[in-house]
Design brief:
Layout: H1 7-16, E1 18-21, H2 28-42, E2 54-55, E3 68-71, H3 78-84, H4 87-97, E4 101-112, E5 119-122, E6 131-132, E7 137-142, E8 153-156, H5 180-185, E9 194-196, E10 204-208, E11 213-215, E12 224-233, E13 237-238, E14 265-268
Antiparallel strand pairs: 1-10, 2-3, 3-4, 4-12, 4-14, 5-11, 6-13, 7-10, 7-12, 8-9, 8-11
Length: about 280
């Protein structure tokens, strides 16, 4: 199982803005358990009785040819929480970014069935202006074997050194041209190099919050499911003026700190993991 990184892997992350690990983040048992809970959460079966923060696809309400997305599925299901809030994931992410600790910002449950359309190129950091510092690192964990033609996530090598672009939520879900934001942001004279994430189920990729990424249409005959953790430095606070339409609801009046009930500390070099996480089940 993945438990740390070599010097070469750390250097690769710093150079490219992402690191792909072909296998070993999740066991076979964990993959099967998480696939089962994926199906339940997307069917509206919330084991905790609490709905996710964002449910961007519902059967019968939304088209079948778009990527299904749920944000903060961990609030609805403790087994999903066991992965996205895992201490190991938090520690690995901190190692790559040089953080002294990490806390959960939000998760994504992403399900791209055959024929599903693209997700537009973007920088996660574009949407983090309501935080100080406005940054994060993301762990993307595959629940299915991926292939280049199967709508897998793609990174643009070295794009974490490009300028931060303004957020554009309208270009994210099933845009006409999913690569347009990347082309518009590329510095003069730079030819973007796209790298598809081809891994086994249980493999993963980590990326910097300014790294451009997205995914093309799923032209394969298999599902593409992924579980994503967006993790911020442990000392992150709310911005005193900027707000987010959804997540600033968790900001207390007169208090800029991130409440550990909603943004738990998943790993800290001093052992300061949020105490309530000990109640979560263990993945197989």
């Amino acid at each position: 199982m993945l438990d740390g990184f070599s010097d070469a892997q750390l250097e690769s992350f710093r150079r490219d803005g992402f690191l792909i690990v072909e296998e070993g983040l999740l066991s076979d048992g964990a993959i099967e358990a998480l696939r089962e809970r994926f199906a339940a959460v997307f069917a509206g079966d919330y084991a905790t009785g609490i709905a996710p923060d964002e449910v961007n696809w519902k059967k019968g309400r939304d088209p079948d040819d778009v990527t299904r997305q749920i944000c903060n599925g961990w609030r609805a299901d403790d087994l999903i929480a066991a992965q996205v809030l895992s201490e190991r994931t938090g520690r690995l992410a901190a190692e790559l970014m040089g953080y002294r600790g990490t806390r959960m910002l939000q998760d994504n449950c992403l399900w791209k069935p055959p024929g599903a359309r693209s997700l537009g190129m973007h920088q996660d950091g574009s949407y983090a202006g309501y935080l100080v510092p406005p940054e994060m690192i993301t762990c993307w964990a595959a629940l299915d074997d991926t292939q280049a033609a199967g709508g897998t996530i793609e990174y643009v090598r070295g794009s974490h050194r490009w300028p931060r672009v303004p957020p554009d939520r309208g270009s994210f879900h099933a845009p006409e041209d999913w690569l347009a934001p990347m082309r518009a942001a590329a510095p003069d004279g730079v030819e973007p190099e796209r790298v598809p994430v081809v891994v086994k189920a249980g493999g993963c990729a980590f990326h910097h919050s300014l790294t451009f990424h997205g995914s093309g249409p799923n032209e394969a005959t298999v599902e593409r499911r992924a579980l994503v953790s967006h993790l911020v430095p442990v000392e992150t606070r709310f911005h005193p003026d900027n707000v987010d339409l959804v997540y600033s609801r968790y900001r207390r009046r007169g208090d800029l700190s991130l409440d550990e009930s909603y943004f738990p500390v998943v790993w800290d070099e001093n052992g300061g993991r949020s105490a309530w996480l000990s109640s979560l089940p263990e993945l197989p």
